[in-house]
Amino acid sequence: MKNIFYFLLLSTIFACCTAMDQVERIDYSVIQCKTISYSELDEFHPILGTYKDFLPFLDKQLVFSVAAISYHTVDPNGEPVEVSGLIFHPINRKSRGVIDFLPTAHMDSEGGGTDRLLAEEGILILMGYTVIMSDLIGSGISKDRPIPFMIAENTGRVAYDMRCAAAQYLWDEFRYAMPNETIIMGYSLGGSAALATQKYYETYHSNTIKVKEVYASSGAYDLQTAFEVFAKTGYSNYPAIPNIILGFKHYYFDCRGSDLDLGLIFTGDLLQNYQEWYSGKYFWSEILQMLGTDLHAYLHPDFFKPVEEQNEALQSLIPYLKENSLTEGWCPKAPIYMTHAKTDTYVPIECAELAVKNFRRAGANISFISYPGDHLTVGYLWFVRNIFHFF
């Protein structure tokens, strides 16, 4: 009997060491850590606080840890940068597995996950999963840096380094050996980031990370398509276009010693005030109030012309829009479950439709549901649906 016991003990230790050996070591620092019980769940989101008593399957005895950590990664040009992120982990229950949850977009400097701590993206801790979520560059402790909005490969790299840092933290703190299998999820910007992370894992780390499945909703998977739709409609209910362009300007032009003339891209009050409005001082709805929903009021008239007739500044962006497309040049291995709002004025549904078409043509396993409603309505539906799905 003793021999069996020692064999099982050694097997467990060996399995844990093997799992840790597969993870690249990324040093981290703990910013803050908090233990949360069921009674404190109202802090996640007002909707959950209101309806949690109507969700009888929630584990009322669950106690979990949420830790904000910092770790080192690189920006799109390979320059070192320190970034932060969150780790949700059950304390009094065995983890059901790991979810890489990518963050939704925000434009204020205090909107990062580590600023909020109980970020909605960690909601599946309630179903017993370990959830890891990077703030990505330009948020959390790196809020002083320009946001590399929609720069796909860097998004995947930053998420990967967060995963490695989280693996080390979880082993040090809980002796939890992170499994090599993961689920990837994200909504809105997180939807695009989820596909970017899947692509990065499957391209560079398929031997050490097995992506089980991906849940992506409402993402701008192809920026050129998004820009073309916005040019046709002239309308946007979310002021992300200037943020994308400013990120491209910094990382693809300024940092490489070239120039992008914003006078040929922005116009009106935006041209005079973009540094102030996109400095992190304002919430996205405040920026929208200053800009309005009519793109003609703040984008250069050439933005609305066919690509071949656009000015040189706009045309110089096209290679980078194509470079960061997530709909071409690869075939996802893990199944993707994608959703989008039919009347989405934040992110055009055409981005999802193109992804579905191209991935199916490449032979990928992708499921797609388009829901009635707008971006925010489908967002709430998606988060609630996930709670039931992972029950």
Q: Would you kindly provide a written description of the structure presented here, covering whatever features stand out?
A:
The protein folds into two domains: 15-221 and 332-389, Alpha/Beta hydrolase fold, catalytic domain (Rossmann fold); 223-323. It is α/β, with parallel strands linked by helices and 391 residues long. Helices cover 39% and strands 18% of the residues. A nine-stranded mixed sheet has the order 1-2-3-5-4-6-7-8-9. Residues 4-19 have low confidence and may be disordered. Helix 4 (152-174) packs across helix 5 (189-204). The protein is globular, with a radius of gyration of 21 Å. Strand 4, helix 3 (113-116) and strand 5 form a beta-alpha-beta unit. The chain has helices at residues 2-21, 46-51, 113-116, 152-174, 189-204, 223-233, 241-253, 268-277, 284-291, 312-323, 349-362, 375-389; strands at residues 28-37, 63-74, 80-90, 98-102, 130-134, 181-187, 210-217, 336-341, 366-371.
